[in-house]
Amino acid sequence: MSVAPLAWRAGATLLAPLLPFHLARRARKGKEIAARLHERRGEGAERPPGRLFWLHAASVGETLSVLPVIEAMAARDPALSFLVTTGTVTSAELLARRLPGELAPRVAHRFAPLDVPAWTARFLDGWRPDAGAFVESELWPNLLAAAAARGVPMALVNARMSPRSFARWRRMPGLARVALGGFRLVLARSEGDAARLAE
Question: What is the pTM for the complete model shown?
Answer without folding.
Answer: 0.93
